Amino acid sequence: MRFATLIALLALLSGCATRPSDAEIDKLAAAANQARKTGICNIHHVPMQKELVHVEYAHLPVEYFSSDYEYARLQSFPHAREYALSLNPADDGKKTRVFVCPQCKKALRDWLAKHPNDKWGKLMGPKRSNQALERTADRRANLLSMTSALNFEAELAIVSGRSALSR
After folding, report:
1. What pLDDT shows up at residue 34?
2. pLDDT band at 129, cuts 50/70/90?
3. Across 34-94, where does the E strand assignment appear?
4. Are residues 164 and 157 in contact, defined by beta-carbon separation less than 8 angstroms?
5. Which stretches of the chain are DSSP H helices?
6. What's the whole-model pTM score?
7. Which of 23, 28, 43, 85 is a plausible cystine mate for 74, CB 3.0–4.6 Å?
8. What's the CA gap between 62 and 51, in Å, rounded?
9. CB of 79 within 8 A of CB of 99?
């Protein structure tokens, strides 16, 4: 018993966060979903502001859902995102209105300041949306500039014994 108490005390003193149980995660996620309907933040209990945000297509890997960032997001800043995620690629670039909590945004900034090298914090942080949209716009502009300069009468290249046209 003393050993277990000592381990728990050492974990607290060393700053190790315990991961929430699946039941706690489900409870936090359900509360966040309910808050999106009521407009009151489930963590800070303050009215949220409805903002017009960009929708981004997102296919997040399984590892994201067990990351420190995702746990911290659910527990401290579930309504900080100033963009919306969709599993439908057709939604990418559209706009929608979402509730955003000013205190969640502050909590996210504080968390990112304490965890500047967190992989998911960098990817999912507050400026992610605009940067991703700018890259998408740049790629589309580059694609258009490349296609407008195509020479359709150029010779076909032979690749692996077949012409590129036969592929």
Report:
1. 97
2. very low
3. 49-57, 83-86
4. yes
5. 2-13, 22-38, 68-76, 102-114, 119-124, 128-148
6. 0.64
7. 28
8. 28
9. yes
Burial of 127 (0-12, 13-18, 19+ CB in 10 A): exposed
Encode pLDDT of 94-117 as tens digits: 999 999 999 999 999 999 999 999
What lies within 8 Å, CB to CB, of 147 at 6+ separation is none
- Name every residue whose Cβ is closer than 8 Å to that of residue 96 and which is 6 or more positions away in sequence: 52, 53, 55, 84
d(CA 82, CA 62) in angstroms, rounded, equals: 22
Amino acid of residue 122: K
Q: Encoding tokens for residue 96?
A: 């929608």
**What would the DSSP string read from start to end of 138-159?**
HHHHHHHHHHHT--TTSPPPEE
What one-letter code names the amino acid at 147?
T
Mark residue 60 as left, alpha or beta (left: phi above 0; alpha: psi -120 to 50; beta: remaining): beta
Residue for token pair 């700018």: 134
Instruction: Give pLDDT tens digits for 135-159.
Output: 544 444 444 444 444 444 444 444 4
Strand pairing class (162-163; 158-159):
antiparallel
Mean pLDDT of the chain: 76
Give the CA angle between residues 29, 10, 3 to the nearest 5°: 105
